[in-house]
Amino acid sequence: MKKLLIGILVLSAGFVFAQPLTLEQAPNVFKAYQMELGIDGSYAYDNWTDVGFPGIEYTRRFITIAAAIRYATDDQTEIIINFPYKLLSGSTTGSPDDSVNGIGMLTIGGKYLAISETNFPSLAMGVVVELPTGNPK
After folding, report:
1. What are the φ/ψ torsions at residue 14 (nearest 5 degrees)?
2. 3-state secondary structure string across 88-99
3. Is 44's pLDDT higher than 90?
4. Which of 25, 34, 52, 89 has CA atoms 20 to 30 A from the CA of 45?
5. Which residue has the higher pLDDT, 28 or 103?
6. What's phi and psi for 75, nearest 5 deg?
7. Which one is predicted more confidently, 58 or 9?
8. Which residues contact 45 (CB under 8 A, 6 or more apart)?
9. How buried is 68 (Cβ within 10 angstroms: 0-12 exposed, 13-18 middle, 19+ buried)?
């Protein structure tokens, strides 16, 4: 009972200091001519066997490192570019490892703050285009 009470107190303390669920800022929070650079990374590992072939084991690994750029051309318009680099490898029991490294799908997009009202919800519209720059293999 004591552990449950401590867990509830810790959880409720986390909610007290959490950000509100509805953002109180405008949909486009950048000011004109501001730029944000970021690096994102992800790793995935998958290992499985097929029921029809119980002696064969499949393994896949994915590593993605992406550089992201956001730039505000004015107080209402924002440009977004995401440049991923992927390292993929896979293996099957009894066959050599297969790996592919290279540029992933380049993503270019934009966001426009169409309606900025104080008494009503603001409206921002965005478009994202994925360019097929990745190796289909």
Report:
1. -65, -35
2. EEEEECCCCCEE
3. yes
4. 52
5. 103
6. -70, -10
7. 58
8. 59, 60, 61, 62
9. middle
Long-range contacts of 22-26 (CB under 8 A, 24+ apart): 26/113, 26/116, 26/122
Instruction: Looking at the chain, list the stretches that DSSP marks H as alpha helix, in order from N- to C-terminal side.
Output: 2-16
Amino acid present at 106? L
The 8-class DSSP code of residue 19 comes to P
Residues in the chain: 137
The reported pLDDT for the residue numbered 20 is 45
Rounded to whole angstroms, how far apart are CA atoms 109 and 3?
48
Q: How far apart are CA 117 and CA 121, in angstroms?
A: 7
In single-letter form, the type of residue at position 100 comes to V
Q: How far apart are CA 128 and CA 101, in angstroms?
A: 24
Q: Tokens at residue 88, please?
A: 């993929």
Do residues 94 and 56 touch, judged by C-beta distance below 8 A?
yes
| Residue from 43, 28, 54, 31 nearest 86 by CA | 43
Mean pLDDT of 88-105: 86
CA 128 to centroid of chain Cα atoms: 14
Q: How far is CA 121 from CA 18, 19, 31, 85, in A?
A: 22, 18, 19, 37
